[in-house]
TrEMBL record:
It comes from the Bacteria. InterPro entries: Chromosome_partition/occlusion, ParB/Sulfiredoxin_sf, ParB_N. Residues 26-36 have a biased composition (Basic and acidic residues). The keyword Transmembrane helix does not apply. This is ParB N-terminal domain-containing protein. Keywords: Coiled coil. Residues 87-182 form the ParB-like N-terminal domain. Residues 1-42 are annotated as: Disordered. The keyword Lipid metabolism does not apply. It holds the Pfam family ParB_N.
Length: 366
């Protein structure tokens, strides 16, 4: 008699519910886990972690690139502001329109900075050696330097500054400075003219003449303003080395001086001699010298014709000539002739000849 083997079959509830002949379905994840060993699971988890980290790093790099491009864009616009040590700022690249000496408005600016701070940052260009070159804000920088010297407050050791990206042309940097100055109400034509002259002399610019300099620097100014600047520049070329206070010259006086110098070459040495002799120590004294020169060049106004004295005899007559009838009136110091004719059409030289012949005939002896 053969022996039969008996196997115990453990039916789970899910297995029992499966129809005969159908293999029970198992979750794929559990099947995978049941087939993986501990090493395989660790490798898989590490790969997932590395992938997640790489994605995060790429996002950071993309964000850094975006911020870098935005920084460069804002820097080119001069909108990136930092507090720069004033000891690292130079002001030699661009020639300034302001003369050294006392600025009457500087004290007001210093009071404003002490009370409210600097509301309008200066503009600087960063140099390769880590220092900076001033582009705009010469008066503001001077105010900070004086405040630091007067108060020894470390607050004034650094000044808010907009960073201008390197690479701008010299012409562009000059234009930045000039366009800011054009909105200043106190800038004089002499200061603008002086800057144009210095710009024309600067070998680093493309200006070959005063005309080029004015066109480059004051491109945003109106046509008439450019003419005034050129005229003041011509005046400064002639006598600027003798003027101590050219910025005090009013527009009308400067234009009149330039006109007088152009009208007669002999006027230039006369004006230079007057300025040298005067040695004016104040603005008003120097202006008086210039005004005195103008007054001396003005022709005396023609005297008004005197009214006929009572009882003075006069002669009235009519004379017939080929051109028509002439009505004449003669009295002391005056003779009038009138007829129906437009004398303005007659050539000037012909009129002069006729008048000369008229008086020559009067002088002839009978």
């Amino acid at each position: 008699m053969s022996k039969r083997r008996v196997f115990d079959i453990d039916f789970t509830p899910d297995t029992a519910a499966v129809p005969a002949g159908t293999a029970p379905e198992k979750p794929a994840e559990k099947a995978t886990e049941s087939r993986r060993g501990p090493m395989a699971t660790a490798i898989s988890e590490n790969a997932d972690a590395l992938r997640t980290r790489a994605e995060a790093e790429q996002k950071i790099r993309d964000e850094n690139d975006r911020l870098a491009h935005e920084f460069v864009r804002l820097k080119k616009l001069g909108l990136v502001v930092d507090r720069i040590p004033i000891g690292r700022i130079g002001a030699t690249k661009l020639i300034r329109d302001r003369r050294e000496g006392r600025d009457p408005d500087l004290d007001e600016l210093k009071v404003s900075i002490k009370s409210l701070g600097l509301s309008n940052p200066i503009r600087v260009e960063e140099k390769e050696d880590g220092t900076y070159e001033l582009i705009q804000g010469y008066r503001r920088l001077r105010a900070y330097l004086e405040l630091l010297r007067e108060t020894e407050d470390e607050t004034y050791e650094r000044i808010p500054a907009g960073l201008v990206a390197r690479g701008d042309s010299l012409q562009s940097l000059y234009r930045r400075m000039v366009d800011e100055n054009l909105v200043r109400r106190d800038i004089s034509f002499a200061e603008m003219a002086q800057l144009a002259l210095r710009y024309a002399e600067d070998a680093g610019t493309r200006a070959k003449s005063l005309e080029d300099a004015v066109s480059d620097l004051y491109a945003s100014a109106g046509r008439q303003k450019k003419i005034y600047i050129r005229h003041f520049a011509q005046l400064l070329e002639a006598v600027g080395d003798l003027l101590k206070y050219p910025e005090a010259i009013p527009r009308a006086l400067g234009l009149e001086l330039r006109k007088r110098l152009e009208a007669d070459a002999a006027n230039l040495p006369e004006l230079r001699e007057a300025l040298t002799r005067a040695q004016a120590e104040t603005e008003e004294a120097e202006l008086n010298v210039l005004r005195g020169f103008i007054e001396g060049k003005r022709k005396p106004a023609p005297r008004a014709a005197a009214a006929p004295r009572p009882g003075v005899a006069k002669t009235t007559l009519r004379c017939t000539v080929p051109a028509g009838t002439v009505r004449c009136q003669a009295r002391d110091g005056k003779i009038e002739m009138a007829m129906e004719r437009d004398f303005s059409e007659i050539d000037r030289h012909k009129l002069e000849g006729a008048i000369a012949a008229f008086f020559a005939a009067l002088e002839q002896e009978d």
